[in-house]
Amino acid sequence: MTPNIRPTRRGYAVLAVGAAAFVAGAVFGPRALDAVVLPVGVALLAAVVQVWRTPAPTVERRLPPADEPGASGVVEVTLDAPEPYPATLRDRLPAGVQSDSIPGGDATTGDRDVAIEATVGGETVSYEITPRHRGKHEIGPASVVAVDVLGLVERTHAVDTRDAVIAFPRVRALSSAVRADLRTTSQSRSAAGRDEFDNLREYVRGDALRDVHWKSSAKRDNLMVQEFTADADPERVTVAAGTTSADGGADAGGTALEGTKTSEGAAEAIEGEAKTNERRGETSQRRAETSERAADATNRTSADAMAEAAASVCLSLVRDGVNVTLATPTGTVDAAPGRTRDLLDHLAVATGGAVPNRSVDVEIVAGAESTSIRFDGRRHDFETLVDGVGDGAATESAAATTASQWGNREKAGERAAREAQR
């Protein structure tokens, strides 16, 4: 932490008055100097001493639970120091995170600071944030600005404390018919996984007739059924996801754009900027930069569409009791009933690229305009698989369920940690 002491606007005004008084004293005599300059000097010296003595604070944040883009949450900040003093907290927010505490609240203009009046060593202060894009958004560093009682001098304590809030990809509810078709993927694997004969047993109502061993049945006068062993896990579905653009994705700062529709709009807007620059006679380098940004916007939103489709398909399977292995250009992750956080964390930062493995049960390929999903030997447009297309109720219900589950678990963990500290 590096301290920085400087006058405030009021302090600069007082310095200007003192300088004018000093000049007047030199012209009209020392009485003018004594009447103004000395009080100004004493006040500034006292202000410097007061802020210099403020101890360096510590900053501790409590972040809201991970949720989908557009969901608001509260960041609670605790400032602690050996001695209390009033100050202004400035907390750095990354691009892609909006806050009502910032004038304008624009989430697309780069890093901005939230400014909150606080008391170091006093009560916890808070502010609301809304991640606008999928990704891992880093909050921080922070600075604590202490001002003397007259408001003449301020000292800035820089605190390099950073925390990350995660925005999951949007989860959309699939129609009941599609969920049934996906479930048959694991069931067909079970039927297909008849690697070698295991044993014979008596027929039980519900057994498939194709498994009846007719020769043994004729000898024993009872229907006998064959059982087989399977190397593959019949209750696990493999999913692979990728994009038609190679370099898309949410970076460490979470600066991915929203949705495939936003992709087209962002790309067109930036391409329009390139044309405007050309009309104004700007350099070819500038035009190249804007064209590159247009391609990057398309790529990143393709990755968002990939993450949304993968999250929706995988969570649908998991909710139906099926284990899932997902492969993306970023890596591989497993999910099972009651264990989906790793999958959501993975998809929050997954980047675009070629589908890593095409020998899978379900293949997802996202482009700038549409996302296709292949299973049961056919390709489907993702939008046609969503329950209640055009009606956000199903989507909001799925999102609320996921967020509520993880919010409750994280709050329970926080309560346990506080009890342990006590």
Automatic annotation (TrEMBL):
Transmembrane segments: 12-29
Biased composition (Basic and acidic residues): 272-295, 408-422
Superkingdom: Archaea
Comp. bias (Low complexity): 243-269, 393-404
Alphabetical keyword list: Membrane, Transmembrane, Transmembrane helix
Pfam families cross-referenced by the UniProt entry: DUF58 (PF01882)
Keyword Transmembrane in annotation: yes
Residue ranges constituting the DUF58 domain according to the UniProt record: 200-249
Stretch list, region Disordered: 89-110, 243-302, 393-422
Protein name, as recorded: DUF58 domain-containing protein
Source organism per UniProt: Halobellus litoreus
